[in-house]
Write a structure and sequence with these properties.
Two copies of one chain form a homodimer.
Chain A: E1 13-14, H1 24-32, H2 52-69, E2 75-80, H3 83-95, E3 100-105, H4 108-117, E4 122-128, E5 149-155, E6 157-158, E7 163-164, E8 180-183, E9 200-204, E10 215-220, H5 237-242, H6 252-267, E11 269-270, E12 273-274, H7 275-295, E13 300-301, E14 313-318, H8 324-333, E15 336-337, E16 348-351, H9 358-375
Parallel strand pairs in A: 1-15, 3-4, 3-5, 5-8, 8-9
Antiparallel strand pairs in A: 2-10, 6-7, 9-10, 11-12, 13-14, 14-16
Helix pairs in contact in A: 1-6, 2-6, 3-4, 7-9
Catalytic activity (chains A, B): O-phospho-L-serine + 2-oxoglutarate = 3-phosphooxypyruvate + L-glutamate; 4-(phosphooxy)-L-threonine + 2-oxoglutarate = (R)-3-hydroxy-2-oxo-4-phosphooxybutanoate + L-glutamate
Keywords (chains A, B): Amino-acid biosynthesis, Aminotransferase, Cytoplasm, Pyridoxal phosphate, Pyridoxine biosynthesis, Serine biosynthesis, Transferase
Organism (chains A, B): Variovorax guangxiensis
């Protein structure tokens, strides 16, 4: 395997959908502290999770995440394991009480969540965009919400399909008193969250927050304590909350890396904006640059309704798909990595998470323009 | 926090029970490859788990673990999440078929396993050493094994209590046809495993194999495919096996670090021995040095029956416990970290896993001798 380099000799730009690119400053810090975290004589991986050193790392990470996402004090932050697919079972085990739950189907991930929940509750479909191949979000005014739903599940950004809620649904305004559950794995910390509309949010860390193996759960206090008897203790939100995420040994390295990422995000500025607000400005600019270029070309196409396109995951297709391999090979040569689309969708996908700078999207657009010029 | 150093200026010796010390060479390699794994232009944390780079890391780690532990071809190796406490539910969800299971209670961990399994099956106690405060293993000849048990659970090394099976029970010889399940979290790869006696082995990686957040499961093929309907898909052994541990995004960094550790273990030699056999020779020498010193002193005591003392976790007590704090403070000064005993047992505990060199135990014994001399 040869060294991949951008023309300027920098690290390549990595468009992986997850696990995904991390801020270079975070990786450098982790490398520097690998054998001795702040004079402790230990790698973070070698610390007892119950010792004061790791305790301080975990407490700081939680506080920084709370500040970063403006999480109100009546929500618990839980550091767990199992990822989004694990949460597809863990959420109904904790929240459904064995009764009904409503699912809004908008793509691959919400479809999986709905299917898995059927093991534990009466999992209903309140709305679906399957009839338009997940290219347009169903209007909340049309959702068939159940009177007796224990919760309503939404995937607020579909990583595979590239479709995103530009604002979270207001269930109360729709006549529902059920808590909203959002799977925000693939756009957490890319934009603000209106917590007044949310009961529980979960996400794997490996897209926007840290390495794979860490799952973030943010849950409103009143939703704790209602788990089914068959819920494993290690995945019972109340047990995890009562033990400050240390009922079982937590993924300590993941928490440390996420904590470094939270710090990095808090320090980012863009004009008058800081933290997530700054990232949101950058993400708007990055997405607009890429979508505008695609829309202005007959050589490339994105099929998602412009009103609900994802700022994080941009699937696109070459008009002539016989050029896909050449496109990917040339991209690798140009230091643009992991652009192949998900196998269920095909084509290309550029994931442009927080750690992707505008310069990376500019480099991608420049490559796409040149590829079009030389192949059109 | 001040820099902890051994007199020779080396890293301190870390006796944490887990997460625990890792081989320094492994940490150095991880630091060096942090920003660019083998010319890929990516950190391992930034790689898609479905890409060829991480695929090669995962395949190699599995092959190396199979070689290291001499795992027969009719066993699957699964890389999972949730740790030992997660497995306490995941094992009965997959193996019990909702029927009976037998538990041998030998300390804190087997007690927890038995309690959690009661959610899913008729979890029975086949034997217990609670009457002698978990200081002596119950003789297998006395175990009350059920005719209809779906499996028999044993914790082959109790991390908290410091008690270890010197050989695994031969259930067939005891008249049982049930598969043996072993929780080998805290002594995996410290000694060989007689797989002819085992149906399933599980362990958190964070003691002898890698960082927290990775769970190793080794399961005989015929035990796959019998999960209860309520088993979450992400924790269904057959689903995980059918997807080569990539049903959900695996803890990629943990697999990478464990893989580096497997390589390190395979390379170790001790006289004519290599790999685990070499580690076993070293571990015998380390444990003997420490137990012999403790037994020869009236100042320190270990309460476990000599026939079943753990080679990995050595709990010990000062005759005068009012000196505990002074002992721990002096140890830290001497570069000997994390010696405080588990809160449920008290006193001290030296965990001397594979990554602890003989020199570390020698330094501990020298410190203990000096502390005794100056305080007796």
């Amino acid at each position: 395997m040869t060294q991949q380099q951008t023309p300027a000799g920098k690290r390549p730009y990595n468009f992986s959908a997850g696990p995904a690119a991390m801020p270079e400053a975070v990786l450098q810090r982790a490398a520097a502290e690998m054998l001795d975290w702040q004079g402790s004589g230990m790698s973070v991986m070698e610390m007892s999770h119950r010792g004061k050193e790791f305790g301080s790392i975990c407490t700081q990470a939680e506080a920084d995440l709370r500040a970063l996402l403006a999480i109100p004090s009546n929500f618990h932050i839980l550091f767990m394991q199992g990822g989004g697919l694990g949460e597809n079972a863990i959420v109904p085990l904790n929240l459904s009480r064995g009764k009904a739950a409503d699912f809004v189907i908008t793509g691959s991930w919400s479809t999986k969540s709905h299917k898995e929940a059927q093991r534990y509750c009466d999992a209903r479909v309140a709305a679906s965009n399957a009839d338009n191949q997940h290219t347009k979000l169903p209007d909340p005014a049309t959702w068939q919400l159940s009177k007796d739903a224990s919760y309503v599940h939404v995937c607020s950004n579909e990583t595979i399909n590239g479709i995103e809620f530009q604002q979270l649904p207001d269930l109360a305004a729709l006549g529902s008193s059920a808590p909203l559950v959002i799977d925000f794995s693939s756009h957490v910390a890319s934009r603000s969250v209106d917590w007044s509309r949310v009961g529980l949010a979960f996400g794997g860390a490996q897209k926007n927050l840290g390495p794979a193996g860490l799952t973030i759960v943010v849950v409103r206090d009143d939703l704790l304590g209602h788990a089914l008897e068959i819920c494993p203790s290690a995945f019972n939100y109340k047990t995890v909350a009562d033990n400050q995420s240390m009922y079982n040994t937590p993924p300590t390295w993941g928490i440390y890396m996420a904590g470094l990422t939270f710090k990095w995000l808090l320090e980012q500025t863009e004009g008058e904006y800081t933290g997530v607000a700054a990232m949101e400005q950058r993400n708007i600019a990055k997405a607009q640059l890429l979508y505008d270029f695609i829309d202005g070309s007959d050589f490339y196409a994105n099929r998602i309704d412009p009103g609900c396109r994802s700022r994080m995951n941009v699937p696109f297709f070459l008009a002539d798909e016989s050029r896909n391999e050449a496109f990917l090979a040339g991209a690798r040569e140009a230091g643009l990595l992991q652009l192949k689309g998900h196998k269920s969708v095909g084509g290309m996908r550029a994931s442009i998470y927080n750690a992707m700078p505008l310069a990376g999207v500019q480099a991608l657009v420049a490559y796409m323009r040149e590829f079009e010029r030389s192949h059109a």
